């Protein structure tokens, strides 16, 4: 995924330094791919920032859950832990019985550096691989979301319906709102989800 992000970012006009620096300084996985894809399509900076703000709001919740699980920490470690929190490191730590901030940082920083390494490899590979191969990385965003959504869709018809409604909304609104359609459809989808998705699904731990 880091290589795929780099391919999209470079195609959008990012320099190698900007591409790799974004992974170190922003580190948002899907958010980075969305930002690069929106830049490629000519979106404004404010649209990119607001879209990422909405998409990445979940990290506030994840960071809070992680810090509630650890026993001993301090402000500096908390800030570092929040910066390197992503879905994968959060899931691994949440499913474990560990309560050490150092265990979490070990998991999260390994994932962070792996992503940054992937971005670095992507920057180098773009000058080596055939164009047809590098262009194929454009589907990495869709592959990522499919991988995230399929388990939830299989477990819940409500989630499946919500995904379908949000996707249709995005397609329709994109005809009128352009790059702002993703923000609006995400917010509307989240609002609908509050009413149609059973809270028991999330409380059961399957989500």
What can you see in these coordinates?
The structure is a single chain. It is built from 13 helices and no strands. The chain is mostly helical and 207 residues long. It folds into two domains: 137 residues, no CATH class; 52 residues, no CATH class. The model has no long low-confidence stretch (mean pLDDT 80).
Can I get a quick summary?
It contains 13 helices and no strands. It is mostly helical and 207 residues long.
User: What profile does the largest beta sheet have?
Assistant: none
Order of helices and strands: HHHHHHHHHHHHH
Structural class: mainly alpha
- Overall structural domain count: 2
Task: Pick out its properties.
207 residues; mainly alpha
Layout of helices and strands:
Layout: H1 2-11, H2 16-25, H3 30-40, H4 45-55, H5 58-69, H6 75-83, H7 87-94, H8 101-125, H9 131-136, H10 140-155, H11 157-177, H12 181-196, H13 199-203
Helix pairs in contact: 1-2, 1-3, 1-8, 2-8, 3-4, 4-12, 5-7, 6-8, 7-8, 10-11, 11-12
């Amino acid at each position: 995924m880091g290589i795929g992000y780099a391919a999209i970012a470079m195609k959008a006009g990012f320099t190698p330094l900007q591409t790799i620096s974004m992974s170190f300084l922003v580190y948002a996985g899907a958010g980075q791919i969305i930002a690069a894809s929106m830049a490629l399509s000519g979106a404004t900076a404010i649209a990119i920032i607001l879209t990422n703000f909405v998409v990445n709001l979940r990290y506030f919740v994840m960071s809070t859950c992680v810090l509630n699980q650890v026993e001993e920490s301090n402000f500096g470690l908390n800030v570092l832990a929040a910066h390197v929190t992503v879905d994968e490191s959060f899931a691994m730590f949440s499913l474990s019985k560990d309560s050490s901030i150092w265990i979490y940082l070990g998991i999260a920083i390994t994932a962070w550096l792996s992503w940054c390494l992937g971005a670095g490899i992507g920057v180098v590979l773009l000058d080596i691989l055939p164009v047809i191969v590098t262009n194929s990385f454009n589907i990495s965003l869709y592959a990522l979301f499919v991988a995230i959504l399929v388990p939830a869709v299989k477990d819940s018809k409500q989630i499946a319906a919500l995904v379908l409604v949000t996707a249709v909304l995005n397609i329709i609104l994109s005809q009128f709102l352009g790059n702002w359609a993703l923000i609006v459809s995400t917010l509307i989808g989240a609002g609908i989800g509050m009413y149609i998705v059973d809270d028991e699904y999330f409380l059961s731990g399957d989500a």
